[in-house]
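User: What would this chain look like folded?
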Amino acid sequence: MIKKKLTVMVTMLVAFLLQTTVFRHLALSDVVPNLMLVVTVSYAYLRGRTSGILVGLVCGLMLDMGYESVVGLCGLALMSIGFFVGFCKKFYFRNGLILPIILITVSDLLYGLYYYIVAFLIRAKTHFGFYFIHRILPEIIYTALVGVVYYYLIVIIEKRITTNRRREEEGF
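Assistant: Here's the prediction, encoded as structure tokens.
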């Protein structure tokens, strides 16, 4: 149990550090993949709604503290995404990558729309077409591409934890 929680915390920390340091230098057209969203969607899909909510809230608050001037906006968005993606745990396929990538893509689209509404539309900046083409769409593509690799790593870690836990319970 402690290993699972510690693994989630380390995964979130690594994703945050990668997103804020390494991928800042690998930005394509000033867009960085949203690894915190990938972590939220991955754990919500693998473990369900409760994990999705908790991981989403922590990931969002980490982003808020690192970037945003208003604490809680990203936390609320990622927590909501984690809750809704958690419903898809019923459709979990062990070796399938198509549904997680679709979930990551749709979640990033919703995150981008939410961010546009909160950050720009409320201030009467209505250049949605420009924002969509230059910010949302490149981030969706970049996040989906990097998300495949990061999701696959999370699945490998989860399988290893689960098999080690079963071995310990059986007495090996």
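The helical segments are 2-25, 35-47, 49-66, 73-86, 98-119, 128-170. If you want, I can go into more detail on any region.
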